[in-house]
Amino acid sequence: MAFTLLAFAAPALALPLPQNSIPAGNTTTTVPIMKTAIYVANVTDPALTRDSCGSTRIGDRVLWTCRDTQGYDSQTGKPIALPMMTNSAAWTNLSPSGGPLLAPGPVGAGSNGSNSILQMYGGNTLTMPAYYPLQNTQCPDSGACEDGTRYVVWPDQPPLISQQGSDGSAVAYTWIPNQQLRGVNNGITINPLYHLYKETYTPSADANALPKVEIISTSFYGENAIGYGRYGSMLHDNMAYLYGQTADRETVLARVSPDRIEDRTAYQYYQASTQTWTNSSPVFNTSTVPTAAPKFLNSTSYTTIAEARGLQSTYVIANAGLGGQGTFYYSSYFSRFIWIGQSVGLDGGSATFYITASPAPEGPWAEPQKLFVGQDGDHDIVGGYSLQAHPALLPSGPQVASEKGIYLSWTQQWLESTVGAGYTTPLVYLEFE
Asked: Which domain of life is it from (predicted)?
């Protein structure tokens, strides 16, 4: 198993651990195995420092959405304290032959002026308005409240493209929970509402113009409802598949026609125990269910928490991820649906990528296997997170993914004394056997 680093001025990546295929008893799907991994570049706008970015393809460019974003002062080598925007978006370009367009860029965050970068651009780097706007109930404009709490509009997944026009236009959707934090990551609302954002892009002469964002609903999923689409999403055979999680980080699945994403009554939910699609979904956290509480989108009632928990378990899809952030996509090379991402509990807080595969969005999914281990930052809270795969960067595009490989990225969090920008987003190309 080879592992190669290009001679860029960039941190070295750790050697991956040996891989294994799925156990012999499960013959439905073989999990792809890593052959080589090559560090490609840092993904960055050198004028900004960005946390936790994901990508999606719009026309012949790639749109990235990220979490906390600050300006970066290349003179001091440190972030500019204010403003800190709760999220941002940017474009990157593709090369004429396909794949990310790489070149040296200005000195700044993730760039020393000579190393290759995948350069982000777009939006207004001076005012940095949040791409997904804060609502009036979220202590705008920054999300910081007088009581010391903070609202964060953090996308966990890139936008789901529901429509693509031949002229490069597109419509996309993103589901984001209404999170209010006290401290670094202590949620005040355990089972928050979900906002549904719609993004519309119309090509123009202004290459820096980002999609127009509007909020469709501030309570698209109610409290204690599962946030379908937050854990992952993909479009396949003219159907949108939306992955969600229970409070125990177990995976569940909904589907809907892409032209009816805004219509909750059009959603169907996969019940794994019966291998059928139904019109009702389990609740997010069964411990919050009172006696005789109505089922989500269903008139039937629970009589006990145990009954609610039992019903919830019938929707759980085994092995469809390991609870941590990741990416679902379809690989035409393997003729399989793929999940690549982070585990919760096994290697949480590190850039340890796992992979699983399935012949259908609903399964059966093979037992996840360790795929690749990247270098973590040295921050004492967490060094590596927001693990993402990027079919949007493949020459064939995310709806085809015919290559025998995939681009991966993650967030390295560093002590300021080590890396002044605080965050780095390495990009790796991983070739499968």
From this structure: Eukaryota
- Please state, in angstroms and as integers, the Cα–Cα distance from residue 378 to each residue in 12, 131, 416, 419, 422, following that order: 13, 29, 10, 9, 10
- Which architecture does CATH list for 4-432? 5 Propeller (2.115)
SS (H, E, C) 146-168: CCCCEEECCCCCCCEEEEECCCC
pLDDT digits (tens, 9 = 90+) for 56-104: 999 999 999 999 999 999 999 999 998 899 999 999 999 998 999 999 9
Domain ranges, ordered by start, for the chain: 4-432
Q: 355 pairs with which residues across the strands?
A: 340, 369
* Contact of 122 with 91, CB cutoff 8 Å: yes
SS3 243: strand
Band of the pLDDT at 124, cuts 50, 70, 90?
confident
Looking at residue 48, its amino acid is L
pTM over 0.85: yes
Report which secondary-structure segment, H or E, holds 307.
Answer: helix 305-313
Collapsing DSSP to helix, strand or coil, 420 comes out as: coil
Beta carbons within 8 Å of 290's beta carbon, 6+ residues apart: none
Which residue bears the tokens 């929707």?
A: 315
- The rounded Cα 167 to chain-centroid distance in angstroms is 27
Separation of alpha carbons 347 and 325, rounded Å: 12
